[in-house]
Amino acid sequence: MAVSTSPPADLSAALVLEPVAAADWLVILPVAWCLAIGALLVMLRRPIGLHPFISVAGLAGLVVIDALLLQHVIVSGPVTMVMGRWLPPFGIAFTVDLTGALFALAASVVALAGGVYSLSDINDSGRRYGFYPFLMLLMAGVSGAFLTGDIFNLYVWFEVLLISSFGLIVLGSEREQIDGAVKYGFLNLVATTLFLVTTGYLYASFGTLNMADIARKAEGLRGTAPLMTLTALFLLAFGMKAAAFPVNFWLPASYHTPRVVVSALFAGLLTKVGIYALIRVTVMLLPVEREELSFVIALVGALTMLVGVFGALAQSDFRRMLGYLVISGIGSILAGIAVGGPGGIGGAIFYALHSMLVMTALYFASGVAAKLGGSFSLSSLSGLYRRHAGFAAISLMLAFAVSGLPPFSGFWPKVMLVKAALDIGAWWLAAALLVTGFLTTIATGRFFLLAYWRDTAEGQGVATKAQIPAAILLPLVALTVMTLAIGLYPEPLLATIQNAAAGLSEPSSYLNSVFPGAAR
Amino acid sequence: MEAWFALLVGTFFTVAIYLLLSKSIIRVLLGVAILGNGVNLLIFTGGRLTRGVPPVIQEGADTLAGPAANALPQALILTAIVISFSFFAFLLVLAWRAYEDLSTDNTDEMRVAEPEEEPAPPLGY
Amino acid sequence: MRSVIFRAVAPFLTSLMVLFSIFVLLRGHNEPGGGFIGGLIAVSALAIYGIACGVETVRRAIYFHPMAIAGAGLFAATIAGLISIAARVPFMTGLWIYPSLLGVEVPLSTVTLFDCGVYLVVVGAISSIALSLEERGGE
Q: pTM here?
């Protein structure tokens, strides 16, 4: 029974009592929207032909919502919404700052591209299996992870996206996929369990799980609480999710096994969620500990970059090479986190956003290459340039972008990272970044020479012209145009990213949004 | 009291890590399950232990009468149990499928996705 | 299962348990019970029915595909959260209405809707697993 008499206790300290502006709903809408559409798709079992259209329309809507959210955050700063009126730290808060909004927007763009690509990659049996509901639930998890302001809630969203990704990775159930899924599943579950361990310690030390509250209280607890242990554990857990060097082995074992569109979405979204969480925790919540651990992070970053790019050089399968390039990109982002400061953090965020777009596009390109050339393996893939010159041009642009060459989106973050590393005197880190860029050029160049320019491989006839379906070409071209546009005209994005990095290192506006008037 | 629980958590973790290092996939799965339970116990202990005082507000009152058991870790654990249970079910089915399809439960022999002997890449063109 | 007694009793037992599960679901708002436990009771009812009369009978009896039921539950839970948009309060705030039905005041809330969603998710997801396991066991 609800109490209909006037409340005897003063609830203004515990509950939101004033009405909520409609614009604040943008904070929760991406998650609720994806969940609702995902649930709708689960219900629609008979009209399976409708799934792709509902889902693409839903993802387009998600892009619009995330764009509006970013716009709202740019105009009026971080926005908070609490669940069920309970004020933080008691209620679960969703808080969006520039970083979260940028990542969420990039993720929705990647997902939309994947949704369009899937129109020709996922057949009826894939639809009946539930590709589209899984895709929408994956996006609910990803959006939730980017937008939440609570550590345990972050864990829940990690699990939501993990369980959806399990569903996606075994779609098709080939032997290879089962093999890859076993490694992916077990190691990722261990990683999230480690995250839960850390959450337990965090709760034991802080007595709160709200991010803003933790950021507020960390200063006072520095003498007594084991914050270094926490940071190191976070680094391990999120590093494992992001596939950083000593714990990266699940990624090259699994990312080349599922459908192309699934690989592309994973490359664009999953590791970046880990990186986002790492940035959020180390930069905003525990900055002093990040500073102290910076050498370790830098070393891990440099090794991740180099291991990734050497792996890419050694591979002769298109998608396995891309898997290693994803890892190498993670190394560059870690380098930025290690360096810190506006340049380092900004570079890390920029690189992560760039990597989301470009790695997804490259996986799409590998799918197109396999469609045109009949294989992912270099030993039989050839003559792609002759088959489709336009596609070869797009692939070359993407190869330049991933290597960090101008005028593409990979160039600017790399400049920022190298400059930031040199500014603090970490010349070896800058050298590692540059060498990685150089080796990436060689790795992708080797692929380009053999798969695109070489006319015939053994067992292959002379290449003839071929067509690419529009549903595949469209997302590929769109992502390439985006990376070119960012490369040619980076100012607006760069300014936003710098504000985002500043908002992370100096989170007073974030704190103000969660605890109005109570920030330091 | 907390110290005993800490020891218990440590034992759980030891067993779990020992099992996780095994090659047999069922042992790894058991390790994951035990790890999950160890973490739940860890969160429970992290929320501090209070015996025999449930956090129930008496009829007619608005607040708790005095210190009571911390209810939040229990909510967290409940969530974690449901999640880890569903993961356990999924991974069990996956391990079974892997055993059927790859006819091995030894992770060292699961080399379908990363074959040991790949054809040499083309050396020139 | 070929026991005549079990087959004769199972439909009554199942209907009784489903009824009880709904009672537990509705009771759950202020007292022990709720969607999760209610859903589990309903699933065990369906499982008993399945053991007695075969999985096909259960699938016919629940009419919808179990996953569709789970989807409906998730949808209901999301909608329960979103209703508060209209009342200008934050996501998932509990809202109440007290319509009078045949002279009895019936308190309805978004919380109940959410709990019903949880109930349906549990019923759908777990019965989907249980039924497919029973099918395999029966082969």
A: 0.93
